[in-house]
UniProtKB/TrEMBL annotation:
CDD domains reported in the protein's UniProt record: DsbA_DsbA (cd03019)
Protein name (database record): Thiol:disulfide interchange protein
Disulphide bridges: C51-C54
Transmembrane feature ranges: none
GO terms for MF: oxidoreductase activity
The Thioredoxin domain, residue ranges: 8-201
Length: 203
């Protein structure tokens, strides 16, 4: 009887074993530094306002990430400045300003929509300023933030993080400041997120 129960249990466990996670370094993720991971687990999205895939990712996947973060895991975003020529830098500034004013979600949606839906062409910082004003931010508030030490520091941090993670395309997820999720071996965004969640448990 006991043997029969053990066989039955083994049969039940077999499908679960087949579904076990088997994500491999060098295939599903890359270790981007040999130092320690961040003190607290985190998932960081690297993106650009000029990237159409990033726009779609912001609408479909970012809400999933925020809603399904494992307990204790933080979600962050870094804007990259290597897309859009000189305006790539200004868009990084815009994201940093929005972060300092605590209106990231509102401004992120407005800039993405302006570029990809309305086909608006941004040529300088004043064009960005006008979008902030249209979104309810006073011009002098934008100016003060845009030239602030905190915004400059955040822009430098995002650029440094982009370089350290060897980001060459977006959107890209980096986990715990140490693992870059690779997209070459995945078949869906759901799998991308599964890998990211898995990596949050690694040190």
């Amino acid at each position: 009887m006991k043997k029969a129960l053990l066989i039955a249990l083994a049969l039940l466990m077999a499908p679960m074993a087949a579904m076990a996670v088997d994500y491999k370094e060098g295939v599903h993720y890359t270790v981007i530094n040999q130092g320690p991971a961040t003190a607290k687990p985190e998932i960081t999205e690297f993106f650009s306002f000029y990237c159409g895939h990033c726009y779609n990712f912001s609408k479909t996947e970012v809400p999933k990430i925020k809603a399904n973060l494992p307990e204790g895991v933080v979600f962050k975003q870094n804007h990259v400045d290597f897309i859009g020529r000189e305006m790539g830098v200004e868009m990084s500034r815009a994201f940093a300003v929005a972060h300092q004013l605590k209106i990231e979600d509102k401004i992120e949606k407005a800039i993405f929509a302006a570029i990809h839906d309305k086909k608006q062409h941004f040529t300088n910082r004043d064009d960005v300023r006008k979008l902030f004003i249209a979104s309810g931010v006073e011009g002098k508030t934008f100016d003060a933030a845009a030239d602030s030490f905190m915004v400059s520091a955040q822009m430098s941090q995002m650029k440094r993080a982009t370089t350290n993670a060897k980001i060459s395309g977006v959107p890209t997820l980096v986990v715990n400041g140490k693992y870059r999720v690779e997209t070459g071996a995945i078949e869906s965004y759901d799998e991308l997120l599964d890998i990211a969640y898995y990596l949050t448990s690694l040190k």
